[in-house]
């Protein structure tokens, strides 16, 4: 009987060793280790054995069973390992092939500039005010201290629809309208972005339609120093911390005093083509709101002062991205539009 | 305004300050110097020559061989092609070795066999613009007056060693449209005195008033008119220095009398007109409005039709000058003129502006009248002109002036307090500092309890209110010295309105979905303005469009986007997804302004998904466009309230277009551009949408409230229905939802089939229905009961049979 058991063990182990897959292995398990297997069969002859030999044989049978079971287990784990290995090999891909594209689109560069400016001023407590693109002569000119026949109207040659209705030449009428709504009570802190129109022939630097963004702050005790400080924050945020601004006196009918504001050029003041060798780039016009404008909008100019500024996102985007032709903004060549992703 | 450095330094001591530095100082205190032009830059070796002999070139008809004394031991031989060269002339000679503008070097040469050692120069060859060269020399060389010496530096004689500052004047600073005005400005900047020209007129015994009478009928247009008369003048060239100054400042020399009026215009900013007294046709001047349709020939020999909006200087009968704009041909000063009437007047700016605009005649004179001249300089300008005509045209000045009308000569008094100055500027200036600035400006100032009472000279007509004084102080104090602060005081949170937030949401959604934002023109052609309009209205037209392409305000964005598609398709860019957010303009009868409606429009063409190596390309189609919009509506929390309904819209594919409704109101459409339209525009198959944004942004949406995560399983039933092909999926979905009631959680189409396995005229459409009860686990019986009801309703209302 001992002999039989040992032979069974050898035979089973050889089969386990030879098993090629999990199914064969399972068959071996059923065949040898199961309740109906040959080991059980052999043990059925135990009755013939002496009382001394019975436990010995019982123990031996258990040993054989355990040895076979453990061999099966080991083999099983090896086969599983192999199967995974094979699967992995089969599934291996070329990771350098391109990924599945996800479509992305971009904001228009002008929108990017406008939103950047909007967000900066929102963080300083400003709201965004909008108004009509078709305006009355009153809001576009007269309420801004540009009565009919004022020579400075020539600076803004306009598209009229009727004698009193025109396409706005700047977003300043939104300032006048917003101030009116405040009924003489400050503070007013707004940013007015939008499309504006002037009679210009379209060329590399002129466009009959362009974008403007203006700001207005009216309150008691707003000073020119506040204007300077605010614009300095703006210039550093938009163009870089190392940039400086300078104010040059100028003239706009709706502000007094009026200034033009230059930002130091990226050449660091050495002079380059962009700044025409001056070290400075003109970026906006500004000033203290003219008392006539305050009064017309219902504010007491003795009590309130305010500053206003205005700039052209078209020009700013051109400077910022080095764009050489303003018409690109309105042609919408996709090869142009795709260049302005969100990475900065 | 061009400013000659040398001329300016006659009025203000510039201490030899380099012109660039002066320019920077002027710019920083208020007047932008747009450029500094070095006259004679790049010119070397040009001297005065005396033409001793002139002979015809033996081998060339148009050339002359000249012997020219250039101040050296021997005369030099120069071959000259100028038609006006002649023996005895004093001319500019570029010697051998000289350099002319453009780095043109003069070398010894032989011209058709004759030696030529230098070149006799025209003014153009010395860098002067053709339009500034006096007519008599415009086709040839310039001839100097006889008092110059051979060998002298010709550049000095022509004032070409000067520098010219170009001032970019803002409309308020018309005071700097004169040399004296600029002198005051520069004197204030540099803290110097101003030296005014000394006027001494030697007068004859005859009195002007015996020669001319002046009356003004249009007193508002012409409050004052001063006339002086100079007799016995001899017309000839003006002195070389005067011609040189005029040219440096951009005015072409004519003759001594005309040049003197122009010189005074530059010096005082007061435009003068010189009439030939003998050609006036009467002994009186009457200033009146022109009659409508009145004809008048200006001195450029153009016949002009005037209107009652124009002011006319007449001889009592007919016009002799269009006031402030241009003189008449009938009374022009010519070579034989001997008696000159000088007009120095104040004309109303708007009147002059009207005439110069109507006749396209903008001149140095009209520009100054339009902005207002200094009334206190009228007499001085007339006197100074008379003085110079006596000096340089040999004339005799009649005694006195004839002055018609009157004008307020009193300077304005404007006050500002120290407190206001400091409050507006944010500074802490002291009274003495402010007073000093007014002193530099030559403004008389009295200080009373920290209030500055300033007498502003009439030359500074731009200063009328306290704020103007604040600006004067600020600009001369220097903006660099202002403090840098930010507003303090009550603060309110800034931010975007709900509408603005949602607009950004829409933009970000579309960009995330792969659309690029386009911005197109609002102005378009008549045809495009109305195509694809969501609401048909009469388009709004500009009164004076610059072109037919940009004459109307758009009623729809789509035509402009189609233009962009066409542009890109023409450049081999076949796959595009673009959107635009912008206004369209609806004319409202009765309202002053049109309604501006903000729209969202989009265009998709070509491949929507592109994955070449895996071969999984997906072309844009109706459902791509619709899917984007559904995603957008879901983002705005409105998907359940939006319906797509088959619609026919001009320019769109009639079988592939849907109107979009929000809560039953039409707000836009989506669909394929009509194949014929696509062909006409030469674009590929393109899908479009356009929506009104306001209804989407103003629709009340429910606040988000938490809904418990389902704890019980749901049961899904799939059904395949056979229906007539014209039965819409949307209709079936509607029936299912209605019959499914509360337990039906979700319905989706998951298959659509038409073809050989289905009866003709029928289609199979499969839905997946999900039943769910948040309270408990659903039993089969409960589901069967509802589901059978659904099937029954489908059969009854849409004739739908279950597909076997």
TrEMBL record, chain B:
This is Phenylalanine--tRNA ligase beta subunit. One of its GO terms (biological process) is phenylalanyl-tRNA aminoacylation. Binds 2 magnesium ions per tetramer. It catalyses: tRNA(Phe) + L-phenylalanine + ATP = L-phenylalanyl-tRNA(Phe) + AMP + diphosphate + H(+). Belongs to the phenylalanyl-tRNA synthetase beta subunit family. Type 1 subfamily. HAMAP family: Phe_tRNA_synth_beta1. Pfam families: B3_4 (PF03483), B5 (PF03484), FDX-ACB (PF03147), tRNA_bind (PF01588), tRNA_synthFbeta (PF17759). GO terms for cellular component: phenylalanine-tRNA ligase complex. PROSITE patterns: B5, FDX_ACB, TRBD. Keywords: Aminoacyl-tRNA synthetase, ATP-binding, Cytoplasm, Ligase, Magnesium, Metal-binding, Nucleotide-binding, Protein biosynthesis, RNA-binding, tRNA-binding. InterPro entries: aa-tRNA-synth_II/BPL/LPL, B3/B4_tRNA-bd, DNA-bd_dom_put_sf, Fdx_antiC-bd, Fdx_antiC-bd_sf, NA-bd_OB-fold, Phe-tRNA-ligase_IIc_bsu, Phe-tRNA-ligase_IIc_bsu_bact. Residues 40-155 form the TRNA-binding domain. It is found in: Cytoplasm. Its EC number is 6.1.1.20. SMART domains: B3_4 (SM00873), B5 (SM00874), FDX-ACB (SM00896). Residues 409-484 form the B5 domain. Mg(2+) binds at residues 462, 468, 471-472. GO terms for molecular function: ATP binding; catalytic activity, acting on a protein; magnesium ion binding; phenylalanine-tRNA ligase activity; transferase activity; tRNA binding. Tetramer of two alpha and two beta subunits. Its cofactor is Mg(2+). Gene3D superfamilies: 3.30.56.10, Bira Bifunctional Protein, Domain 2, Ferrodoxin-fold anticodon-binding domain, Nucleic acid-binding proteins, Phenylalanyl-trna Synthetase, Chain B, domain 3.
